[in-house]
Amino acid sequence: MRILIVTPAPPGSRKGNRITALRWARLLRELGHRVTLSESFADQRCDVLIALHAKKSATSIRNFHTARPNSPLIVALTGTDLYRDIKTNRVAQQSLELANRLVLLQPAGVNSLPKHIRDKARVIQQSATGLTNPPDPLSSVFEVTVIGHLRTVKDPFRAAMAARSLVGSSRIRIVHIGAALTDSMAKRARAEMRRNSRYQWIGELSPAATKRRLARARLLVLSSRLEGGANVISEAIAVGTPVIASRISGSIGLLGEDYPGYFDVGDTSALSKLLRKAEDDASFYRTLQARCNMLRPMVLPSRERDAWRQLLREFKASH
Q: What distance in Å separates the CA atoms of residue 162 and residue 41, rounded to the nearest whole number?
């Protein structure tokens, strides 16, 4: 089939939507399909449209449905779709109604959909690959990485703030990888480095370099206020780095309801205690490792590819 993937993130962007679209394109080509990426639908020849973001891709979704009402339309929902926009935004709500299928990145997201369209939902968890020769952790510090662009929805400085109150004997260092999308965020990151010796913001790195830094770290902290299903969790699982995460639906759907490494959104004190416990309590740290290692089959590329194969077969079967 000819498949068009529409994503609002432009070529060259390292935002999550673009990375997801590129990975899906590769997997779909492995399945034998012809795949094109675009920022919008402009009457390109295609048999199927996959649109990332119910709100930001709404015009493409509407135009495709009008031009090709009998062709399969798949809408992939982001965190801002699931946990914000579809509750109040009519444009995003219309995208749900027009779609033949809705792709979610983790199963807990289904509960955020209106009940009458939940049968359209298909869960396709994001995959990641490990490293053949991963770097050893630093022995001089207990390195904790935060990976993500500096955006309010990511609560990007929570780990830095949690590290401020650690006792002097702690060897924890917070290393933040990601671009500042506004001048104010860059200024705040630089100010945090000046006042907080445990925090280092190193900006954006290539995907390969980011993966090696993640593999070297003792922990990943994901402090987001909302996520559709963060790919960085898949990356951490694939390289064997345990996760500490805010207790949000998007992370619970990936790590499990009873995962021991959660803290409430915005709770600096709770995060600080978890960081210190991971550093000082070897049994707790091994528990985090074991739980993440158990999830490794979930992030295999073959699993994600097979999920797409099964979804596209649904459309073949209906014709």
A: 44
Residue type, position 251, single letter = S
Residue 315, pLDDT > 60, answer yes
Helix and strand counts by DSSP (H, E) for the chain: 13, 12
CA distance 124 to 103: 7
Strands (E), 82-171: 101-104, 121-123, 142-147
CA distance 75 to 49: 8
Name the segment(s) of the chain with CATH classification 3.40.50.2000.
Answer: 142-299
Q: In this structure, which amino acid lies at residue 98?
A: L
Listed in sequence order, the residues at least 6 apart from 107 whose beta carbon sits closer than 8 Å to its beta carbon are: 123, 253
Q: Which of 171, 166, 186 is nearest to 140 (CA)?
A: 171
* Six-digit token string for 266: 């915005």
The DSSP output letter for 15 is S
Reference 79, options 145, 129, 154; nearest CA is: 154
CATH topology of domain 142-299: Rossmann fold (3.40.50)
CA atoms within 13 A on the CB side of 257: 2
Q: Structure pTM?
A: 0.93
Q: For residue range 257-289, what is the model confidence (pLDDT) as tens digits?
A: 999 999 999 999 999 999 999 999 999 999 999
What is the pLDDT of the chain when averaged over all its residues?
94
- Right CATH for 2-126+300-317 from 3.40.50.2300, 3.40.50.720, 3.90.1200.10, 3.30.1310.10: 3.40.50.2300
